Inverse folding.
């Protein structure tokens, strides 16, 4: 089963093209999202690599304390639209569906779904509301790639475009 890990205080990461814009009440019809597939491993001692530094605040939280290394497995970008599902396929076999449901002055409302690697079952189907540009972590279970074992997480970040 997938788990959504969200910080008590949303983390805003400055990533090219995804910094939050001035809050506005007008309804959006689209937003830009980045999804990073991250492997968290209890083995090794390399810590957080440069390409994941934007997640450092979250990866130093208690729920990640047991992990010694983090590896960027894959990164995808997509533009999501109001009430239309954008599907992202990952090498792991997981698929993430994202849809913009609406917004207010500071927050985006997103529908997210996450399939198991074999595509046979849904690990997560949820509506999320988070600050524009915040990062939400979704756990997708055990994973092994290139002799590295650990837990696979998806870091979702969406912002007004």
């Amino acid at each position: 089963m997938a788990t959504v890990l969200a910080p008590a205080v949303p983390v805003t990461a400055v990533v090219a093209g995804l910094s939050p814009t001035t809050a506005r009440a007008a309804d959006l019809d689209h937003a830009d999202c980045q999804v990073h597939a991250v492997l968290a491993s209890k083995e090794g001692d390399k810590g957080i690599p440069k390409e994941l530094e934007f997640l450092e605040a979250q990866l130093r939280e208690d729920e990640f304390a047991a992990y010694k290394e983090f590896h960027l497995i894959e990164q995808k970008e997509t533009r999501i639209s109001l009430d239309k599902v954008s599907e992202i396929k990952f090498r792991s076999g997981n698929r993430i569906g994202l849809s913009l449901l609406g917004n207010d002055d500071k927050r985006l409302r997103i529908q997210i779904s996450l399939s198991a690697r074999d595509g046979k079952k849904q690990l997560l189907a949820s509506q999320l509301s988070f600050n524009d540009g915040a990062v939400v972590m979704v756990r997708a279970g055990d994973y092994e790639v290139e002799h590295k074992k650990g837990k696979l997480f998806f870091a979702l970040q969406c912002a007004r475009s």
Q: What stands out?
A: The two ends are 32 Å apart (CA to CA). The first helix runs from residue 56 to 59.
